[in-house]
Amino acid sequence: MTPSELKTYLNHLIAKNLQISTMIWGPPGIGKSSIVMQITQEQEIDFVDVRLSQLAPTDLRGLPVAEDGISKWFPPEFLPRAGKGILFLDELNMAPPAMQGVAQQLILDRKVGSYIVPSGWFVWAAGNRKEDRAAVFDMPAPLANRFLHLEVQSDFDSFKVYALEKGLHEQIIAFLSFRSTLLHKIDPQQPAFPTPRSWEMASALHYAGLDIAPAVGMAATAEFIAYLEVYQSLPNLVSILEGNGAKVKFPTEPSSRYATVIGLTVRAANGNQAYNAFKWLNGKTTTEWVQFFIQDLLPVMRNKGQLGSLAILAKADPNLEKFIQEYKNNLHNYSG
Predict the structure, then answer these.
(1) What is the pTM of this model?
(2) Domain annotation for the chain: domains and CATH numbers
(3) Fewest beta carbons within 10 Å, which of 51, 230, 301, 329?
(4) pLDDT digits (tens, 9 = 90+) for 109-137
């Protein structure tokens, strides 16, 4: 499933209060733990992230302490004791068998030593697959059989929604829109390679004017640098956003088209500028590019608090209202 589908599925587990232990499988850097963290923030519940590969069995079970002639286990402070949330056991299958054995008690019985998982908490886990060339151990069959198993793959549309929401650099988003196959491309021979996580790091480096190769590797960086040349010949986006783009032409090269549409999406500061960009695109290019613009624009306008002003303009323009309605229908069909 895609990251968006995974998020929807996990939200349903919470909504239905299905406290079934859940294992999320996927390649490194795809954002498994980030998705779970986003869910807890949106649901306004707690989040405890336990990296099992970095712990010893006593770190999870606790330390034995003599009390009245009996040895009792004192659980660690990081385990939840009240409220509602997600106890996330990350890197589960990177933990050695002894550690997995202790975690198995927590997953199967919702307790370990003297510790009991509070009733309002979900126990989820995540790990990499063997084909991802990660240093993983086999998961014992009794443990695997107690999990729901969800496998997530990289998906550019899901990443783009996240990137626009988080304000990743416009040029990073435009480049990946043009070369989406570089979103996730593991190179076992290199320490740095493209993943959704490393592109987010690359965005921070690019904002700071630094080389992005330490994040995504030399090959992806070379393509990105070559792509940046298209920005020398982009149409005047400021004029378009201000409503003065009547004489401005839509680029013919696909690379420039992606940069233009993403640039208008990111730079539209309010509903009026967004509407000016829509009118220009609607009069200059094909439906495909207008749809591409609208599907990215509406979440961006929502994040900027400008969706209401754009909706008012849409009511007076049947063309814009039609595109917005098509977007809503597609979104409903996708999520339903």
Answers:
(1) 0.79
(2) 3-151 (3.40.50.300), 156-335 (no CATH)
(3) 329
(4) 888 877 889 999 999 988 887 666 555 66
